């Protein structure tokens, strides 16, 4: 019997971001309907919500494939993912007109300005968060499913 380790790796990878989707949707609904936020958040929110779980699953499959030749801890492997997601997301958002890059910061939806000095620590926090989630949650799921 074939145990399908790559399917199990994909499912372990998509588990955590899929659980986060309802929380993000609830946050979006609160912003939109309770606080009456007027800029079009949904234009920049739907695509990442649909893409990120699949990327996590594929990234975990890549970890499983590379584990035989280059053993790397799951946490470190997961911490590399934001280094790929942020530039890709910024490129897509810029090409769709959702993000405008300036000399001192970025402007989202032509109304929300965020300085680079705020983006840098948030990005470092995202890397640390990804490391912890991949080390403890995805690593636990990989061990539970017998692929680690």
Report what the structure shows:
The protein is mostly helical and 148 residues long. The protein has one domain (5-144). The protein has four helices and three strands; from the N terminus they run αααβββα. Strands 1-2-3 form a three-stranded antiparallel beta sheet. The chain is globular and about 50 Å long. The model has no long low-confidence stretch (mean pLDDT 88).
Q: Any chance you could write out the topology, listing elements then pairs?
A:
Layout: H1 5-34, H2 41-67, H3 74-95, E1 99-101, E2 105-108, E3 112-115, H4 116-144
Helix pairs in contact: 1-2, 1-4, 2-3, 3-4
Main sheet attributes: strand count, strand direction, barrel closure: 3 strands, antiparallel
Radius of gyration: 17 Å
From the spread of the alpha carbons, the general shape counts as globular
Would you count the extended β strands for me? 3
- Unreliable residue stretches: none
Number of domains: 1
Strand order in space, largest sheet:
1-2-3
| Amino-to-carboxy terminus distance | 19 Å
Task: Count the DSSP helices.
Answer: 4
Spell out the helices and strands N to C. HHHEEEH
Mean pLDDT across the residues is 88
Structural class: mainly alpha
